[in-house]
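## retry 2 of 3
previous attempt timed out at serialization; input unchanged, resubmitting
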Amino acid sequence: MTTDISITVKPADEKNAALIDAEILHALDKKGIHASKSDVTSVFVKKSIDARHGQIKILLRYKVYIGEKPNGDGEFLPTWKKADGRHTVVIVGSGPAGLYAAFRLLEDGIKPILVERGSCTDERKGDISNLENEGKLNAQSNFCFGEGGAGTFSDGKLYTRSNKRGDIGKIYRIFVEFGAPERIMTDAHPHIGTDKLPGIISGMRKKIIELGGEFHFDTLCTDLIIEEISGSSPAMTKTQTHLTVKGIRTKNLKTGQESQLSGDAVILATGHSAIDIYKMIAKISPESLEAKTFAVGVRVEHPRSLIDSIQFHGKTMPEAAEYRLTTQVEGRGVYSFCMCPGGYIVPCATAENQIVINGMSGSGRNSKWSDAAIVVERRPEDIPEEFVQKAKKDGCPALAGLYWRTELEEETFRHGKGQFAPAQKLTDFLSHKDSTVLPETSYKPGVVASRLDKWLPEEIRSRLEKGFRDFDKNMHGFVCDDALLIATESRTSTPVRILRKKESLECEGIANLYPSGEGSGYSGGIGSSAMDGEKVAAKICEKLKTEH
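## retry succeeded, writing output
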């Protein structure tokens, strides 16, 4: 028989095998299962840290086999096949949704063609270095765009609460196969790190090419190739036109060459920053888009030692401390997002007249700072009327939130200096006064003092103020002179969802088009995006088998 067991140990006893074995037997006894040590085989499943109530505990979870041995179920990689050329699927975007969709297609021998507007990881490193060190933005290859998607150079957090959407263990196993550390299989909040991810993503690409897939980097999807089919039935009162995608039009951003790529289906896995893709869909089928809730705010940065001291109650731990904060202010959520222990703040604009920021950590999480986005929930009904009217005038009301988000990013740019971001001490933000001196920051382009409390939208500013005061009650010392606010964190998720059918997962208004991942509004982060990419690809495989 098998059962799941959780035990609690002190940090010093985490590697004490004899004590852990005794605790597992004791936990079995409490469940009414009496067994000797020789009858028990325990498989480590998950580790987490509980620093509540002033005492640090290590929580360890095991799958325990009594009188039998582990059979290895679920521990194996999928079997990938060489693409046989009978079917081809075009995937727009090479982030986690796109890459994992490609691997799922290859389980059935279907050829994936991945089209990526940004560069491969090696070239992308140079573009990112130019952005951080010289403030030179490549609008197509940056922290958001390029091989591996936004997560490749923006941390590599894998934690997701969307475990019911797919096999997250399979996602982790594939990462491990290409070089991720084994611990991501067992950590409560698995994380790869920006220093390791580029090599892992590059290995994935090489495997996909080895199996017959293609990659087209520095290649923009400029339009969909659409076939209009008119038809009617006895139930219809008039003839209806159905749109079916047959492929995409592309433009090579280095040579200017325009081309076409055809396929049995097209997967859109373009991420939450591909504004042109939303506008393209709005032009073809505006009813296929809907406005959705998103969040915007600032990023707060503290000395890592301060956050560690608060969370670990002054005790020393080998890893950097995490936190998760949430409250409700005037009917809207205010919460921390993408917390980066021992991390850095990075520039994530995708246009010259924007400032957008995000956070990341290396695999060691060992910088002297810790940061997190603190954001305010923004619902479709919260968008100012001028942006609602602009979207209606453009023929797609769903774009209102996107227009407002873009305006906020451009307003941030006006209060910065190039990619030097506007910043204010947290205590000055709450006291409504100038910051004459700013704390040292990890944000490489640099920061300029700015009155965020004056120019951030009132409905955002006032809720942030109340949120920070609430957070300081839970983490006393969180509000301090060493805490720095940097604007603006605006791309926690997309303001627009590309609607898809519940059963087939095809776009509501365009057949054979499969929206997927974070940019389409169906996931949030690497793990859930990868699972959604797999889910969509599986539907395509199922459909192609049925048709042929």
